[in-house]
Amino acid sequence: MNRRLILSLIALLPLGGVVATPMDDAQQVLHKGIDEVLALADRAPNMEALIERLTPVLEKHISFSVMTRRAIGPGWRQFSPEDQANAAALFKTLVIRSYSNSFTIGEKPVINYQSASEVAPGRVDISSTTGYQGTRYKVIYRVEQSENWRATDVVIEGVSMVANYRSQLDPVFKKGGVAAVLKSLEQSAARPQ
């Protein structure tokens, strides 16, 4: 290989000489998002403030539309665009509230990131263990790339958040269709924290 070609190839490498893979990019985005969340959770004076502070960060790092579509399942195709937007907004409220309620203000979880695997082009699973309040949990973050990397599911101790919601919403849809799902989401979102 001639020297000019070698220098050209080296110039294309990022600093440090290592080419970033999709898994590296996905992990970097996930770590940054979790760090942002933990920093906010650590400084929140109360739960209401925590939810208010976390919402824009979680909106940036989670694809609520993908999660909602998958949680509803095949019935999603019967939702009008307006119903889809409404369902996604309600689902987002539920997820953010559930996520926020998992924190005790002033207590910070310890996250140890482990392996990452590319399960399909543009889809990466990132494994971790999380220690919180004396208990350790196995957590897998499922992230996908559209315009950027965003979480589309979280699997805690083998239980997928999306699959869990789907097991609840699928029977509701089969029984009462779109209106019943929207009503169920509205009632869940209206419950006190």
Topology:
Blueprint: H1 3-12, H2 22-43, H3 47-61, H4 64-72, H5 81-101, E1 110-120, E2 123-132, E3 135-145, E4 149-156, E5 159-160, H6 161-190
Antiparallel strand pairs: 1-2, 2-3, 3-4, 4-5
Count of discrete domains: 1
* Percent of sequence in beta strands: 15-25%
Query: Helix and strand succession?
Result: HHHHHEEEEEH
Question: How many E strands?
Answer: 5
* CATH-derived architecture: Roll
- As for the CATH topology, it is Nuclear Transport Factor 2, Chain: A
Radius of gyration: 20 Å
The strand line-up of the biggest sheet is 1-2-3-4-5
Q: Which runs of at least 5 residues are low in confidence (pLDDT < 50)?
A: 1-19
CATH superfamily, by name, is: Tgt2/MlaC
Instruction: Look at the structure and give the mean pLDDT.
Output: 85
At a glance:
With 193 residues, the chain is an alpha+beta fold.
Which properties best describe this structure?
193 residues, alpha+beta, Nuclear Transport Factor 2, Chain: A, five-stranded antiparallel sheet, 6 helices, 5 strands, 22% strand, disordered N terminus
Write up what this structure looks like.
This protein is α+β, with helices and mostly antiparallel strands and 193 residues long. The chain has one domain: Tgt2/MlaC (Nuclear Transport Factor 2, Chain: A, Roll), CATH 3.10.450. 55% of the residues lie in helices and 22% in strands. The protein has six helices and five strands. It has helices spanning 3-12, 22-43, 47-61, 64-72, 81-101, 161-190, and strands at 110-120, 123-132, 135-145, 149-156, 159-160. The protein has a five-stranded antiparallel beta sheet. A hairpin with a 2-residue loop joins strand 2 and strand 3 (135-145). The protein is globular. Residues 1-19 have low confidence and may be disordered.
